[in-house]
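lol so apparently i was supposed to do this last week
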Amino acid sequence: AKICEHEFVVEATPVKRLCKTHNRITVNGQYPGPTLEVNNGDTLVVKVTNKARYNVTIHWHGVRQMRTGWADGPEFVTQCPIRPGESYTYRFTIQGQEGTLWWHAHSSWLRATVYGALIIRPIQGHPYPFPKPHRETPILLGEWWDANPIDVVRQATRTGAAPNVSDAYTINGQPGDLYKCSTKGTSIVTIDSGETNLLRVVNAALNQPLFFTVANHKLTVVGADASYVRPFTTKVLMLGPGQTTDVLITGDQPASRYYMAARAYQSAQNAAFDNTTTTAILQYRKSSVMKPVMPSLPAYNDTNTVTAFSRSFFSPRKVEVPTQIDDNLFFTVGLGLNRCPPNFRKNRCQGPNGTRFTASINNVSFVLPNKISILQAHQLGIPGVFTTDFPAQPAVKFDYTGNVSRSLWQPIRGTKAYKLKYGSRVQIVIQDTSIVTPENHPIHLHGYDFYIVAQGFGNFDAKKDASKFNLVDPPLRNTVAVPVNGWAVIRFVADNPGAWLMHCHLDVHITWGLATILLVENGNGELQSIEPPPLDLPLC
Ligand code: C2O
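anyway here it is w/ CU-O-CU linkage bound
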């Protein structure tokens, strides 16, 4: 195993997209940011210097951070933000994860342009569990706004309304041929006849689950969220924001040019969304320059395709899923609309019928602290930063598919954590409340991978649905796309002490409070306890 050192300078950089140049926050002047390549077992040391005018932190999405929660990155959860002019060095070791993860800013909406791929190859000297590909290409799906994304979210929080949707989707930072002024930059992926290319697909978009396909080519899925899966072939992928999928593609078609394309999977009803299509070009080396073949993509609301795709995921072999459960949690996730008090400033209630949007888990809308991080407060015993009364179950269970009483549309606000003992075997049922709109929520847990043992539609029924649990070979993920109008059940062992954010990876939902903290206590002994905080941990 080796030590991989990198320097990230976060700074404003001119970026030209859709005919105009804008200043955007980038890492080392690159958008998307640098690709990090390591082997399983390596230690990463990344010094981040903030030369921008915003606070920033970097999160290593999906990295387990065993005992190194100080390097996880979400602002005010595991660290205070890195202020302009300051730096912080993230140090962590990749333990037992192989495939594709990514890194992104975890402050406000900076991750719109501050993100990049983290490629984890097998332990040095070990092969892939599939034939070695001839090439490997990261495919980062993203979202572009002509306006500064920080202004877009500020506007939304000031008015209580839904934020503006993006102006383009991107592949490796480029909108592609179908958008104005974008042909020149279109990203080109090469392949040779008979070759295979390992595409490492990441959904880095802020607010949109995306379909991805390649014209005339089959995709063989071999991994997701840095775990291998039992290989299966498909025409189309769906990734919720935060998710990654590794696919093999073979150059078995006539030497030519083919579009790779991505566009929205939109499960929310009556909500505005960006209905454009981003493309890149798959180009055979010997092909002449001709118009690429366009693939067909599922309709934006094609939930059947999403269900079939998500049901194709299995671990490659039998795995050890906890069967006895110590903490049995039921988390309802969804939106809400806060009524505005009569004397409230009118311009702050521009949501539907003079309300403000909100979102919650178990009817608690999460509020970040702003003076110190939750992990620091926990480790140093500083009171008054958060409470540990996050409910294991919603106060009232109701029919999540029916007409929900308006009294349930207005969550309370709070900085509440749910405490787990070291080693606890945890099950969480995640249920879409469908309040305001049913929606597919990509729920991400920091510090852990979890088994998705079941998912389904309607109301979760503990008796009936237990028979559907796959406790033999379920997939291991860090982000689950919870079915629209449905539920998912995840299981894991709380073997990593720390303060771990669990949230919807649609940034607009985390902005509205769809988040909570799982606080995993130290166990007995050094190997069961979090390491001491780094000396350069930022101050608030
Ligand atoms: Cu990829 Cu809390 O984030």
